Structure formats: structure tokens, C-alpha cells
Amino acid sequence: MQIIVAPDSFKGSMSAIEVANSIEKGIKRVFRDADIIKIPIADGGEGTVDAIVMGAGGTYRDAMVTGPLGQRIKARYGMLPDGSAVIEMAAASGITLVPKEKLNPLEATTYGTGELVKAALNEGATNIIMGIGGSATNDGGMGFAQALGAVFKDKQGNILGLGAKYLKEIETIDISRLDKRLSQTRFIVACDVTNPLCGRQGASVVYGPQKGATSEMVEQLDDALRHYAYKIKEQLQKDILNTQGTGAAGGMGAGLLVFCNAVLKSGIKTVLKAVHIEQYLTDTDLIITGEGKIDGQSVYGKVPIGVAQAAMPYHIPVMALVGGIGEGASKVYDHGIDSIMSIVDRPMDLEEAINEGQELVEDGAERMMRIIKTGMLIKSVSK
């Protein structure tokens, strides 16, 4: 029996790699000789680099970059066998890099993500896949552009510093020194966010509060991004104000479209293509996927559904092993998922479930396999 194990991470508990390893252990308790192919998956957020590097047989690189609040940090990216680079915004400008009490989207910068891109360009990459989930920033990609050579000045001709607090002061945008290699590089952005840059559904209003923005700050950030968009249209002749996806990652979607001519694509589809999952599907008997919680929202670009849709043409059964089953989870049955099983085997609080995550996943995978084995016995008896 060949089984593909292709889960997402269980947020706050286990990485996708750890989940896959635990599922494998559970399977082996029942089917010792099963041929297991582990393909950890992500949807463009945290874990994207690991998923693609592992799935595509790539290698890791480390670079010292500027963190969200200006601190120097080590950030990891990946290089693939075909020369492509895979970068995760969360590694350089992520919300997990900032203590909760210090979250401040006015101060946070995407400069480090630009430095990661520069490091990849120095490695010779001419194709870059970027996941932009999990950011701490709301600077519209201004810092990203600054790291790559763009210069922003105020009315007095002073060069502006880092952070969204400077967006409203932009008077001129000079891209004459923007890294020339950007125009020769293909940027694929793994992102399922369709929010525009500004307004009620914009970056600041929808995502600002979770990055530490007060209601007053949200209004300030929204006005600043609107000014930023106006200056870009005026000086670079690119109208990004109402373009879908420009509000992703605090406006990083806008920065990538303006300064890199990036293409925004479905996160899960981008990752599945990069890991070449189709090459394993022909001879596979079962796929096990999963995520921390599956519910009615999972049908909108989440990992289990992406994996199930990839399997559909091959008529492979897909089972989801999850941390929790939420409202509307049954919707996934219409999108290629054949069965859902929770790893929770007794009443417990979230902290307990997180602490015991790996053991719970192993036990859950074992129960799943015993159900399959029982079905095989029923089929055998009926003959």
C-alpha cells in the first residue's frame, strides 16, 4: 500500500514536517510495510519554505537580515534544483518575530524581506516563489523596496526611514537605483488574500488590529497607504488602489506588484506545483492530509482541499486528520475529502492538546488505519 502523507502545520503546536512524521508512526503501528511518501504542505504562510524545499529536493540558505523592528536576525530561504528560490516573508518580517507587547505596525518594516530577495538574487535566482503570510507589517512593501534600492523622500528632499509611519510623508519615489535584476526575475507570490489596499476590506482595517493597531492607528495606516497608492500612480503610473490582493500582508501585495511585477497566485496550488505532487499520484492508494482545525472556511484555499482537488483526477481516497472539527466542516465532503477524524480522544483544553500534539496525532493515525484495516476485513469476508 502506498500512502501520501500531506498535512499542513497545526498552528501553534506542530510544523507540517512534525505532523507528517507523527502520522507516519501511527500508520506503521498497523501497516508496517506501507510505502509512505511524506510531503509537508503549506498555503503560502509559515512553513512554505520547508514544504517546497523538502518536496522539491532543494537546499537551505541563511542570511542575516533586518527584522520587523530593526533588529538583526538570521532568516532562512530555499534554493531549488532548477535554480528557483523560495522565500517566506514570515522569516524576515513575521509577526512571530515580535513580542506581543511590542507589536506596532507603524514601526514594523518589510526591509528584511527585501534583503532576503537580494540574497536569492546573489545566488543567481531568476525565479522566486514567495509566501507572504504571517507578517507583522503594514508598510505597503516600502521597506522591501528600500532594501532593493528604491529611495523615498519627503517634501524637503530628506530620505525617509523605515516603517509605515513614513508613508504619509512620501513626496517622491526614485527607482533609478532599484536592483536591475528584479526586471529579469519572475516573481510568483503564493497568496489567497484578495483584499484591496485600502478601505473597509483593506490591509489596515482587516489585518491591522491583529498586528497591534489601535482604532486610531488603523485610520492613520489606511490614510497613509492611500497616500502611498496616490504617489505610486502619480510617479510610477501604476494604479494599485483597488487591485485585488494588494492588501495582502499589510500591503506587501502592492509592493510586489509595483516593484517586481509579481503575479499573485493561489497559495496551495503554487506549493503543490512546486513540490511536484502529481508525480506521486499515479500509484498511490490513499492520501492523508490535515490541519489544526477544519471547518466551513477550509474550502477557501486551505491545504486539505488543495490536496484533495489534486487527487480528484486520480480517484484516490483522501482522509483528513485534524486537531478540531468546526462548524460547517461537512462542506469539505463536496470538495474531495472522503473522511475527517479528530486527534482529540478525550475532553481536554487547548493547551493540553498542544502539549500532547505529537502523541495525539500518532494515536489518531493509528485509529484511522485500524478503521481502514477493518474495512479491508469486511470486504474480504463478504467475498
How are the secondary structure elements laid out?
Blueprint: E1 2-7, H1 16-30, E2 35-38, H2 48-56, E3 59-66, E4 72-79, E5 85-88, H3 89-93, H4 111-122, E6 127-131, H5 142-147, E7 151-153, E8 172-174, E9 186-190, H6 203-207, H7 215-236, H8 248-260, E10 263-265, H9 267-274, H10 278-281, E11 286-290, E12 293-294, H11 303-311, E13 318-322, E14 324-325, E15 339-342, H12 350-355, H13 357-382
Parallel strand pairs: 1-2, 1-11, 5-6, 6-9, 9-10, 11-13, 12-14, 13-15
Antiparallel strand pairs: 3-4, 4-5, 7-8
Helix pairs in contact: 1-13
Provide a quick synopsis of the model.
By secondary structure, this protein is α/β, with parallel strands linked by helices.
Strand content: 15-25%
CATH class of the largest domain: Alpha Beta
Instruction: Supply the CATH architecture of the largest domain.
Output: Alpha-Beta Complex
Enumerate the spans where pLDDT stays under 50 for 5 or more consecutive residues. none
**How are the strands of the biggest sheet laid out side by side?**
3-4-5-6-9-10
Number of E-type strands: 15
Q: How does the major sheet shape up? A: 6 strands, mixed
Helix content: 25-40%
Mean pLDDT: 94
> Can you tell me the overall shape?
elongated
Radius of gyration: 22 Å
Q: How many domains comprise the coordinates? A: 2
